[in-house]
Amino acid sequence: MSYVLLTDSQVNPRPEVQAIIPKSPRKGRRRSVGTKTGDVEDDTLLSHKMETTAHLFEILSSRSDIDHPICAECTEVLVEGLQKRLATASKERDAYVEYLKEANNDIPTEEERQQAQNDLAILHEREQKAFQELEKLEAEKVAMDEELSALQAEARRLDIEEEAFWQERNAFTTTFSSFQNTRDSLSVQLSHVSQQLEALQRTNVYNDTFCIGHDGNFGTINGLRLGRLSHLPVEWSEINAAWGQALLLLAVVAEKLDYEFQGYVLHPLGSASTIDKLEYPQQTSTNDPTHPAKPKVSHFDLYCAGDLPLGLGFLHRRFDGAMVAFLD
């Protein structure tokens, strides 16, 4: 005996069928049942049937969303829905029958069963061999896992050593790079200082500081004319500045050569430079050597205040004496 399992779609009515079936009042149209006067048994039987029918309608109404009895139109709609469900169920039944036929056709014969058993035995034998091979491979895998673990431990140790090596190498590279940078910096500094030294050795400070030349009939120092003519008057401020530069040059050269002038003291003061002439008295036997006599100081101005009128040329004597002292 076979059974067919029906889903809810075949048992319960479809939603569209329920939606189009209106609810009817509990009390529908019933056929009027006439009674025969005097027939008590028929009346009792008819009443019993009516009660039974009413009870069945109540049971149907309680188990569905449709109140029974229903009208003719609702009955037609319900019958149409049931016919559709019947058609669907018939299609499913036909599908099951077709499937059952195919299943019966696929039942193997005795020879096919024997061949299948032989194939199964061969497969069992192959399975045993494969299982043994698997056990062997698993044993080899265990050995390889142990070897792999040892190699991994060795690899970790080598990684640690490599990391230490690279750290040491990086530190050495950093130190070496610092040394190279210091060396390059010192080399650049040495080259620069050497170039500066060579330039300074070729440079004459006195030539740059005191440029001596000439401008026509006049000698010049730093572009200042030293002298004047009647037809080429030169400002006394320029001449005084030129004498100041000349006296400064003389004082600088004497200091550079560590030379001390005898009887003269130079005072380079630019345009107001002066020269002091020292005159010591003659030594006598009466002089105290512990208290030498003070020299006589003559002050000469190496500058001129300007042109003087005729008859006052004696006022240039100090300027003339300063020029004579400069030449001495």
Description:
- Residues 69-197 form the Atg6/beclin coiled-coil domain.
- Keywords: Coiled coil.
- One of its GO terms (cellular component) is phagophore assembly site.
- InterPro entries: Atg6/Beclin (IPR007243), Atg6/Beclin_C_sf (IPR038274), Atg6/beclin_CC (IPR041691), Atg6_BARA (IPR040455).
- Residues 200-328 form the Atg6 BARA domain.
- There is one protein chain.
- By secondary structure, this protein is mainly α.
- The protein has 3 domains: 8-29 and 41-105, no CATH class; 117-203; 209-282 and 291-327, Autophagy protein 6/Beclin 1 (Actin-binding Protein, T-fimbrin, domain 1, Orthogonal Bundle).
- The chain is built from 8 helices and 6 strands; from the N terminus they run H-H-H-H-H-H-E-E-E-H-E-E-E-H.
- The chain has helices spanning 8-11, 15-20, 40-62, 72-105, 110-202, 205-209, 236-256, 317-327; strands at 212-215, 218-221, 224-226, 264-267, 274-279, 296-301.
- The chain has a 3-stranded antiparallel beta sheet with strand order 1-2-3. The protein has a 3-stranded antiparallel beta sheet with strand order 4-5-6.
- The protein is elongated.
- The N and C termini lie far apart (159 Å).
